[in-house]
Every structure is written in C-alpha cells, then in structure tokens.
Amino acid sequence: MVQRRGPVLLVLCVASIALLVTGCGNGAKTSSQTPATNTQQSSNQNQTQQQNPPTQPPAQNTTPSTPPTSQTTTATPPTQQPAATNNTQSNPPQNTQQPGTSPQTGTNSTNTSSTPSVPATTTPPVELGPLKVAAVQSFPENGYLALGGSIALNATIENTTDQPVSQKVALSLNNNPISAQDVQLAPHEQKIYYFEVKNISKIGPQIVGVLDWVRSLEVVEPALDPSVRAGQVPADARVVSQTEGIDETGIPGGEVITSEFSPPKTFNPYASQETSSSAVFMRMHSFLLEENPVNFKLEPGLARSWEISPDGLVITFHLREGVKFSDGTPFTADDVVFTLNDVIMNCDIPNNFTDSYIVNGKHVRYEKIDDNTFKAILPAVYRPFFDVIKNDPILPKHLLQRKVARDVAGAWQNYSLAQCGFSDNRQAFRDTFADQLRKSGASDPTQQVDDRFKLIGTKFSALSEAIKGQNVADIKGAALELTTALQALKSDLPSLTADLQAVIDEAVSQLSGIEALAQAGTWGVSPGSFSDSWTVAANPSEFVGLGPYVIKRYDVEQQVILDRNPYYWKVDTNGVQLPYFERYVVLIFKDINTELAKFTTGETDVYDLDNPLRPQDWPQIKKEADAKGWETINGGPVFGTLWVALNQDAEVRGAPGNLSRRTLQEVFRDLKFREAFAFSVDKQTLIQNVFSGIGFSQWSPVSVPSPFFDNSNGPDYDPYAFDPDKSKALLDSIGLKDTDGDGVRNITNEFLKNHGFSDADIAKLPAENDRELEFVLATNQANDIRDRVSQGLVYDAQQVGIRINYKPSDFNALVTDLLGSKYDAILLGLTGDSDPNSAVNIWKTRGHLHAWRYSAADNPQDWEKQVDQLLDEGVATYDFDKAKGYYVEFQHLVRDNLPLIYLMNQRFLYASKKGLANNKRFQANAYFGYDGGRGFDDILWWRDEARRTETLKN
Asked: pTM for the complete prediction?
C-alpha cells in the first residue's frame, strides 16, 4: 500500500513502504490503521507489523555532496530519420571512465549484439592544468538517451594545487567544446558544477567530456510505426537498458494475467490504505525519481536530472520535455507542484505522505520555475528527501484541481486556507504557548495548552458545519467566534515569531471574506471532495496517469483490465516504446490458496507479483516446474526483519513497584542474558523447518538488500550464530543457574545482589529454588510462520535451561501490550525500507516504537545517545558514503547491545510461465513489499508468438 511514510500506524495487514510491525496471516494484503504519534524527521516511518514484512528500498543516493552551479547548453535540434525496429540488444555504454582513458562500450548482452563504434579521438577537450574531475553524477546513468534528449552532469571539480585557480572549463560533445563556464576554486577545494547538453541530434555512439573525464553515450531513435502500434514518444524519452533489467529487448503484443485475493477499494493513490488498491493504480502512475529494480540505486524518472544549491537547501529538478498524460495532455511542472503542494501538503486531504515532507517541524515548499523546471525548498539539509519524493505518483492537475477545496473559489476555499495554515503550524503554536506558560511559573502546562487548542479546533469545526448547512447567519457567527479565538491567541502570545503572527493574520483575513462569499452563494468545493475522487465506481475514462498502463474496466470483485498507455515515456535500446504488453489483467480471487490453484491450472501467468510465494509452497512448485512449464526464481533476501523484544521496562513502566516484574526486568536488561538468548537460537534449523530451507540469518536492524546494510563481513556473517555452550557459559557467569537440578535455571541471590536488590527486597521474593528463569513469549495468532518460529524458540531455550511459555495473542491486544510495556517477550517483525531513516520512530530514544525500553526517553543509555546522534547525522548530508558510515556505526551499536534479538527471514520466491521474458532478476523491494514485478512490469514480454498475437478479449 502507499502509506509508507506517514504517522506511525498500527495495522492489521500491510505491505507498505513504511517499516511496520505486522501481524497478518500469511499473504494478507488489506489493512486497517489507527493514527499514532508522529516522530520528527521521519521519512518512511516504521509501523507495527503483522505479517512477514513487505516494503520498498530507497536506493543508494547518488546525489552530490557539494551542490553545483549551473551551465546548460543546447545541441543542434534533432532531425528525423527512418525508424528501424529489430530485436537486437545494443550493448550499454560503460557508466564512467577513469581519467584519461578511452571510453568503451560494454559487451554483456543476451541477444545478438552490435557494438557501437566509438569516435577515434577521445583526448580531453582542454588542457587539464591544475584542475581535475574528482567525481561525476551523470544523467542518465546507463549511458543511453533518446534522439533529441539531454545529457546532464553534476561534476565535482577539484583544484589539485596549493594556489587558487580561476579557469574556464568546457563541456564537450564528441570532443567539440559546446560551452564553457568559469571555475574558481581555492587551494585543494572541490565544488560541484552542473552541465547540460540538450537536444542531442545524432544517432549512435557519442562522447561527452569535462576536463579529464569522458564517457560514451548511445543515442537511440524511437521506432514507431502507427500502422502497427499507436503511440507517441517524447523527444526526451528514458531509454531502459540491461542495467534496469532488460536482459532481452522485446517484441510488443499480448497480455499478462496476474491476480490479487482482495478487491481494490479505490483508484486514488492519496486515499488508499491497502495493497489490493495500490497493486492496480500504481501501474497507471509514474514518479519524479525511480529506484533501479536491479540494484536499488536512485535514478531519474519524470525528472531527468537535479542539482542542489550550495547551502543544500534548494533542489532544482529538470523535467523531461514533451511527456504527456494517458489522455494526451502535456505534463508540466504545474502537475508536480499541484501534486506536492495542493494534494500531499494539504491538511484537507488526509494521506500518509504529508509527514515525510516535514523537516525540523517545517514543511518542504515547492515552486515552479518554468514548465519544465521546479524547485524544492527545504528547511534543513535532509538526505532522505530523495527517498521520499521518489514514491509520490504525479497526478493530472487539469482533471483533479477542481476537486481540491483550496483551489476552487468559494467559502470552502477560504475556510481551507485558514484552517490548513493554522493546522500546519499547530505544533509551533503549542510549543510557544507551553514555553511561555513555563516561564510564567507553570510546572506542567500540558492541560492548559490542550484546552486552548481544543477550543480553537471546536470553533473551526463549528464553522465547517455552518458552511455545510449554507446558512449565512450561522456562518457569520461561527466565523466571528473563530476570528476572536485566533486573535486572542495572538494577543496572549507576545513571543510569537513574525512567521507565526503572519499565519494568524492570514487566517483572519481568509475568515473575513467568508460571509460575502456565502451571501453570493459561492461555495466552492468542500474538503473531502478530492479523497472521494477516482473511486472504483468511477467511469474508467476519468483515470489518467503517466504510467505504463491505464484502467480500461473494473468488473467488481472479478477483474481489473488495464490497457497500454500509448503516450508512455520510455523506450528500450532499440527505440521500441514500452510497455511491451498491450494489456495487463488483474484477476481477483477470494484467498491465496485460490491464487495458487489458478496458477497451477494455467489460468494466471505468475504467482505472484504482489505477495511472497509462501515457503511451504516452494518445494511443490519446484517439483512440478519442468512438467508444467514454470520458471522459478529465488530473488534473494526480502526487506524486513523478524525479532524478539525482551521487555526491559517490565517493572518501571509495566508494573511500578512490583518486585517480581523488577526481577524479570533486570534479567532482560543484562546484556549477557540477551547474548545468551541470542546464542541459544538454532536459526539454521528454523530456516529449514519454517522456510523450507529458503531463508537467511539476520543480525542487523537494516534490511539486507538496502545499500546501507553493512555487508563488510560477507553474506554469511552472523555474530550470534547458534552456540548453546556459549549460551550456557554466559548464563552461568551472571548467576542464572539451575540450583535445584530440575533442568530450569534459577534467578539466584547472587544475580539479584549484583543488580541492586537489597536483602530486604530479596526476602520479599520466593526462595531461590522457586525463582525459575521463566517468561511468556507472545506473537500474533493465526500466523503459521510465527507460530512455528515461536515453538522452535521454546525448544531451543529449553536446551540451555530457560523456560518459555508460548502464548499467541490477538494482534491488537498484542500491540496494546507492546506500547504499554505490559509484556514479557514478543516476537514480531518490521517491514524494511532501504533507508535507515525510516526507522527513527523505533531507534530514537523518544521514538513511538522504542518499545523494548521506553524509559530511555528520560534516561537513555550511552549507546542510545550515540544512536540518536548518528541518525541525525545520517540525514544531514547528501554524501552517500558519509551517510553509510553513520548507519554502519549505528548497526554495530545495535549488534553489540542487542535491544532486539534478530532471528531470520525468508527469501523472495517467484514463479511464472517460462515464456515470460525479463523476469530473471525479480526481487523483493521495499516500496511494494514483495512485489518483484512493479519495477519490471513495463519490460516483460512473451517469447511465445502465439501469446503476443492472441486476440485480446474484452
């Protein structure tokens, strides 16, 4: 589902970009949610997860560390040449060249390949002198661009000398200088400069260079034949190559049949809360930035390039020119600013995206520069911004603006602007009020603050009801009362900043005009109209997007049929417009067992693009694969983690003053006990028994596929690999010994005295032989995988003398116990995002899901203070390597202090009919959970000619 980054949510069943603690049964896809507390500076917030976690990775951020100055150049306009279509795969150019070397093209191709010729002269365009290129971020990274497209560079130029340097630096195309700009650098200084060449008009291999850096390009001509296949491709189309998953360039035609076991609830991406909806509508939308489905690196999407201001606070995006929506309407920066400002950042439109754009308590702002350029203005340097913005579907302003209250003149518009202006700054108002009360002597101003803002909220609600009733007298009275309340707040808060005073003044100004609009009968559009748009009952002609497909028809609870978008903005390396399929069909079944049955009988083509193939199904799928013509894929580790939390606040928060709970709390707080527990778990046996041998051990809070995961110790590294002898020795060393010989260890007087218990305290507890090392392990019921893992943990712990009483529980009750520290031990999981910042609400000491030790908010341990600092540093740089360094240190702190006992997880498993091409590199991703297909669905095609040429039904 598309809820990945909003406030922390407790969900019954999810597949989200956010990290979630989930508890669904295997394969569940729908969700319900309850908002909870927002955590500051969280990009993709973690959430409680019921099922084996789903999500999407944000990839390695290749954004430059020092923002650039700009230089844009234009090459000769393109001339049209005859299109040629064939099924050959051009070899992709190399990504970058070492200084001074000749560019080459790659040689790895699945199909018959033709190696582009390279211009003979590849010497650098200017005398190098004291300057060199230290690094380059190039757009596009794969080296392919369409005829008439653009190449852009963020080039880090370094002064290698001890003297200041001022020099013109040329950008060259085929060794011909196109333009030059002044570069001024202090001794040994580095600075990033933005270069761009537009409208490249020559087909075939090209060379682009700056100073000692050169690279080869391949310019592809779109191959369109309207008599065969209707379509229109923009000049600046994105060329998809082998690096994005095209192992075989395709032949268009036919359809693919997939399935879901829950019907969609909406086709509006900013009203959805469930994966059954997003599985459909996300295929009709596109994004500003994209994540490479093979390596999870951040790449250009609708935004073909970007540059960052020297202070890191303004990011300028350059959009592809000539792109059109599926109805033929041009796409411009207006659509982007509308989506980001008027939809996502609109308090009238509740969605799970808004909080991701709040940095240090302030909103990111967006401004249009021209039709093909816009800028984002950040309150502070915030690296995860790129991870955030890559997941937001861009909507058609020309169709949906009329559904947004703030954009349609009338009483509702004035109300919306007043209410949202105040609401967006509510926390700043509250903080100012609380601070002023404290200065005046109030010890706990919370209640006074709550009462004051509840009053203002009530008056906004009264005005809203009056406008709904369209009674002018009621509107006049409600507007006056609200105005008075806002002005009183301003008078009572002399310490308000000028910005906050202006917010109140603007709200009062908007309220002053409502009466006249009501008298004129100019009501506008009510809040909520947008969220009620694009329902499943709407006419399919209303659904317009920029993605590979567009909805043709929805047969309620039976199937959704999507047709190819003839204006889609991507081509393959032969110039063939994507997607290859003419039609994409989603059949709806009642459960996952039916989905599997329909695949085995050949009624669907895949199992399954949006859900993990259950590990218990894998042996049978593999056994029957050859006979039934299936291709099976083990796509590597999934995103997410599975863990046990031991309640280190069992007494201090869960049962204050209870000595028995304090005893258990001190056991769990002892690091050597947690280490002993970790060493007692036989992960490999669990993997074999629970995941049919298709799994991997975990040790880190960062998902294995994430580019931030610390893989320096190799894929098989496990610092707590099964070692029962080490486990026993650790337990003995801290005084957890079997004193009565019954096979269960006891919590000895020695242990208690070493943990601060007085003789008087000990005297109130049961005798030593009766204080057995025993606790309850809970997980969510009706989850077969977690049930089997829990039973395995009970057995493993018994072998080292720990008695665990296993007790499955209702998920909602389980979460209540977790948040209230009313548990002993809980087995749950977190969906994983590829950016560790998504987990700040878990790992920050004041995080809403810091559930193993909430008391850390007031009394953090030293290592937890370090984690807080590292997470702050990780978002405050655009340099990926620096950020990864912070997150590696964070992983080591978690590894060494074991706040959670990490277990293992399954691998991404997938099956399809053998004729489906370009699916070999399917793998789980963080955004769509286990959906290996979302990043590939526009490049899949049928090798079987019969499937390509079949007559499409309906």
From this structure: 0.82
